[in-house]
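$ ./design --mode recover --in tokens.txt
reading tokens...
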């Protein structure tokens, strides 16, 4: 039922974990984040904390020092899934830094895919339509073929050997007969369904590569050097071409959606910050309340201002609807709770209430709540009304002018905005058990 769904949503909010993120100067900061946080969310959090300008180039990197490799963690990826693949006894880190080329291939594909390394399927007679190059990567029925010579480290040996490689949608292959692309001569190396592509930062030093332009394919389940398929290009442009093509083949349209997301306006109901129950930021300067539609702005406010309140163990019981009681009785208990602290503080708590009908009978309504706060040595109560929004239940404190999908959104919003209240909410009081 709806109550069970809300309980599950509430529980998911409270699954917080501490992670450490490094800056480019190797200083680090530990932050507590929800278990469903993405790489984009982390970047937005650190843009806010470090007072950076958000030019959409900030990137989260997975850095595996013991292997001398690192990769971009794509904006949509779950950070906790990345961390779960780390071995306990290895020096693995998250880095927050700029990468101006992260999505540059969408703007200037010809800089990333030189003519001599790219061809289209035989249906177009091998002619590359430059204006459609990226589209063919994103289209599941077509794919540019990337080809060229690479050095490869042979398994269980220290030696490197040069082969002709071919990258197709089905995976990466090398030819065991010169530059032949005949199926009988192509030997499968890797696909990307359960592998990631890394830049090799110590190709010569750690892996004995013939050039500095190393990269590798690593299984998501592997954590040792034996799990790496080490490759090496002759120049930076060739390495960039291979890595970019592999990213596009692995993630496809998702990469393009990551690229355009910061520039898109989204419906407020679809906006998401660090969890499904995100803070809604609004502007009260006009005649009507306005939802701030910049996802980066909303996310930054949500993460910075909302996490400290969510982590409170008190919030586990704040919105429980198991006990219903009359508002008069609630006021007595609320006064007792609020008076335990200085009445000069801005205190608040939320309680379930029942509604008295015109016949005088008490009618239980588990979806009706009251917000009680103490301000200027006076205790005040504000009824939170449930509103039906096309079959979805939302909550409002101001006669349906401002809507929230749940009470956590509502409370976090009024911690940042005064709205119809006499003041912003400040200190949360645990609810009294009756």
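writing sequence...
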């Amino acid at each position: 039922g709806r109550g069970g769904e809300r309980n599950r949503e509430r529980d998911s909010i409270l699954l917080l974990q501490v992670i450490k993120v490094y800056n480019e100067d190797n200083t680090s900061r530990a932050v507590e984040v929800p278990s469903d946080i993405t790489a984009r969310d982390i970047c937005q959090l650190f843009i806010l904390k470090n007072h950076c300008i958000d030019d959409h180039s900030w990137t989260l990197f997975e850095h595996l020092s013991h292997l001398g490799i690192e990769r971009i963690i794509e904006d949509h990826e779950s950070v906790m899934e990345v961390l779960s693949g780390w071995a306990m006894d290895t020096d693995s880190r998250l880095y927050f830094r700029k990468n101006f080329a992260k999505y540059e291939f969408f703007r200037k594909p010809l800089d990333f895919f030189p003519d001599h390394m790219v061809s289209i399927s035989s249906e177009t007679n091998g002619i590359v339509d430059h204006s459609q190059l990226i589209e063919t990567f994103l289209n599941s029925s077509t794919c540019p073929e990337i080809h060229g010579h690479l050095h490869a480290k042979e398994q269980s040996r220290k030696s490197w050997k040069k082969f002709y490689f071919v990258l197709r949608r089905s995976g990466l292959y090398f030819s065991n007969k010169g530059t032949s692309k005949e199926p009988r001569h192509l030997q499968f190396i890797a696909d990307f369904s359960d592998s990631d592509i890394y830049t090799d930062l110590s190709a010569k030093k750690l892996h004995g590569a013939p050039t500095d332009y190393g990269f590798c394919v690593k299984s998501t389940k592997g954590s040792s050097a034996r799990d790496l398929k080490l490759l090496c290009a002759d120049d930076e442009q060739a390495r960039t071409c291979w890595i970019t093509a592999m990213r596009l083949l692995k993630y496809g349209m998702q990469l393009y959606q990551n690229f355009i997301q910061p520039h898109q306006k989204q419906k407020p109901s679809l906006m998401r910050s660090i969890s499904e129950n995100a803070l809604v930021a609004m502007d009260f300067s006009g005649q009507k309340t306005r939802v701030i539609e910049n996802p980066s702005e909303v996310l930054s406010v949500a993460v910075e201002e909302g996490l400290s309140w969510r982590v409170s163990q008190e919030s586990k019981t704040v919105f429980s609807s198991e006990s219903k009681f009359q508002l008069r009785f609630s006021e007595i208990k609320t006064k007792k709770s609020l008076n335990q602290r200085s009445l000069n503080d801005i205190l608040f708590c939320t309680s379930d209430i029942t509604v008295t009908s015109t016949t005088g009978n008490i009618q239980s309504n588990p979806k009706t709540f009251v917000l009680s706060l103490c301000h200027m040595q006076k205790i005040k109560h504000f009824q939170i009304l449930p509103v039906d929004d096309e079959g979805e239940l939302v909550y409002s404190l101001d006669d349906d002018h401002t809507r929230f999908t749940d009470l956590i959104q509502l409370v976090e919003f009024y911690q940042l905005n005064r709205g119809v209240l006499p003041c912003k909410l400040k200190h949360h009081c645990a609810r009294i058990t009756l």
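exit 0
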